[in-house]
């Protein structure tokens, strides 16, 4: 673990130069999530019953009892590995993929979130250019930027990164504004060396403050179903699980349909939906 000075963290919009670093951070932070989701589905009663039926049928064809048990499980795991990324996409997002280029910030000056720790310490954090090696391929990519229309940029959503001395330590994804005064957090990732330092809380609370000032009244967050850590994290920040003791009169029926948990094989939920009223 590395001691992190939160007053030195700058939370700004992601730029095109940050895309590869953000992708690497997500790959590192979400490692094992897909396997835990597959294990969650495999251990459901209905799934176990179906596997047992197929194993019984194979037992008539295959002389080995172990093979009759292993083949259905192996085939189902392959099926889930192939189909799950397409069905879940970015967990919590209504789209099967994330438009990184479209969600990149193109302004001349950085758009930042307020850091309350800077006011406490009296320090002013400064954003430095991210450190990365530029290869010939990178130069070609930089020279051929995509044409991003305002419509695409608005549809893509936003990605905010936690920058400290030019290094990206964490990021938070916010989906595009599809409903008035309602926002959705799609993904929250912090680097493995900077966990339990308050960085994730800082990202969420700073984004909440910005959205609240813009008139947002409710924020939703989708958490992978097997993630007990993610569930405990959002509960500590004041989030409640959707439909957990909520009155039917308070929640609009259309909103319930839009914020239903993502479902995978046999309709089993892959995410838990949490919300917080600002």
TrEMBL record:
One of its GO terms (molecular function) is N-acetyltransferase activity. This is Probable N-acetyltransferase 14. Residues 118-259 form the N-acetyltransferase domain. Gene3D superfamilies: 3.40.630.30. It comes from the Eukaryota. The keyword Acyltransferase applies. Probable acetyltransferase. GO terms for cellular component: membrane. It comes from Sander lucioperca (Pike-perch). The chain crosses the membrane at residues 37-55, 61-80. Its main location: membrane. Residues 124-154 are annotated as: Disordered. It is found in: Membrane. Belongs to the camello family. Keywords: Acyltransferase, Membrane, Transferase, Transmembrane, Transmembrane helix. It holds the Pfam family Acetyltransf_1. InterPro entries: Acyl_CoA_acyltransferase, GNAT_dom, NAT_camello-type. Residues 135-154 have a biased composition (Basic and acidic residues).
């Amino acid at each position: 673990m590395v001691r992190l000075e939160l007053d030195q963290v700058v939370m700004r919009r992601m730029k095109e130069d940050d895309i590869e670093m953000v992708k690497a951070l997500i790959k590192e932070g979400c490692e094992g999530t897909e396997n835990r989701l597959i294990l969650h589905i495999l251990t459901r009663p209905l799934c176990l019953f179906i596997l047992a039926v197929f194993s019984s049928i194979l037992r008539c064809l295959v002389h080995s009892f172990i093979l009759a048990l292993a083949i259905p499980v192996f085939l189902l795991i392959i099926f889930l590995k192939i189909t799950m990324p397409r069905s879940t996409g970015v967990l919590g997002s209504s789209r099967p993929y994330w438009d990184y280029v479209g969600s990149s910030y193109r302004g001349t000056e950085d758009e930042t979130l307020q850091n309350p720790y800077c006011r406490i310490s009296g320090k002013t954090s400064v954003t430095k250019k991210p450190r990365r090696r530029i290869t010939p391929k990178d130069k070609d990519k930089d020279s051929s930027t995509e044409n991003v229309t305002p419509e695409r940029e608005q549809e893509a959503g936003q990605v905010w990164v936690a920058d400290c001395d030019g290094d990206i330590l964490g990021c938070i994804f916010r989906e595009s504004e599809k409903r008035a005064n309602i926002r959705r957090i799609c993904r929250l990732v912090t680097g493995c060396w900077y966990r339990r330092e308050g960085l994730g809380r800082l990202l969420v609370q700073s984004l909440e403050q910005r959205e609240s000032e813009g008139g947002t009244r409710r924020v939703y967050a989708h958490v992978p179903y097997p993630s007990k850590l993610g569930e405990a994290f959002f509960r500590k920040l004041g989030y409640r699980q959707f439909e957990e003791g909520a009155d039917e009169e308070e929640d609009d029926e259309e909103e319930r349909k839009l914020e239903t948990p993502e479902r995978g094989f046999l309709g089993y939920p892959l995410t838990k939906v949490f919300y917080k009223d600002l």
